[in-house]
Amino acid sequence: MTTDDFRRNSDNFCYRHPDRQSFVLCQRCLRTICPECQTPAAVGVICPECLRDQQKAQSPAQRKAERRWSRPRAVTASAGRPVVTYAIIGITAFVFLLQLIPGFGASLTTQLAMYAPALYPDLLGVFQPWRLLTVLLVHDAGGIWHVALNMLALWMLGRSLEPLLGHSRFLALYLISGLGGSVAIVLLGFGTPVVGASGAIYGLFGALLVIGRHIGANITGIALVLGINLVLTFLPLFLGSGGISWQGHVGGLLVGALVGLIFARTRAARQRGLQVGLLIALTVGLLALLLVPPALYW
Length: 298
Description:
Layout: H1 3-8, E1 39-40, E2 45-46, H2 48-57, H3 60-69, H4 83-99, H5 104-112, H6 121-124, H7 131-134, H8 145-165, H9 167-188, H10 198-214, H11 220-239, H12 246-265, H13 272-288, H14 292-297
Helix pairs in contact: 4-5, 4-8, 8-9, 8-10, 9-10, 9-12, 9-13, 10-12
């Protein structure tokens, strides 16, 4: 195309500012818009007219949620960076490297893996409660895919959730979800040793699903990814091959959704005490469920 043809083609210029060259299109109407006319959207950017149409189409609940979650908050230099996410990934990767050390690695995995009988002195003569959370740090040392996929999911989810929730809330979500996965293993898979952070990862999925629904976001993509992961979780069970702790996945998912609901319903600053109290109550309730196996089975 010649220079004159280029200049005569209005598609090469912003439709609101014909003197401004641009090659960025509105994701809804596909008209060319310059940087001044661009508003970031879920995917790409939209023009001012489409933005107004989108706002008009919002339900009262969506507008209320948008105002609530877009209120300005005091931020620090690191508030927008998922530093807790990076720290968890770094610590988990370091532990995985330790697992690769011949002799020492196998012993470390044995001591940190989730093994329900080790929580009850009457069975093994030992009491090792740290396994409820240290299971999040150890993975299958026979291959890198287990830890790599878990940490990739953590990185992807943490970049969205941690800046939204804040560092302390995100850490609480991760740990309580992991605890929920471990408790589910005690209740539904008592004698099976388990490793991996999948319970906590599924908890992040559950929280993101609930919070996204609460603020009126489009959660179709999240629900689709979660559905695919659940199918992959239960498929080996139906095929009789095993190898995946569906108990930890489901337990983490349900508890993460509960934590997400607590965060969504106690957003106001005046509800901070209620939020902390509910998280403590949930944690205590999960620990109380560990009393069920002795009452039922011995």
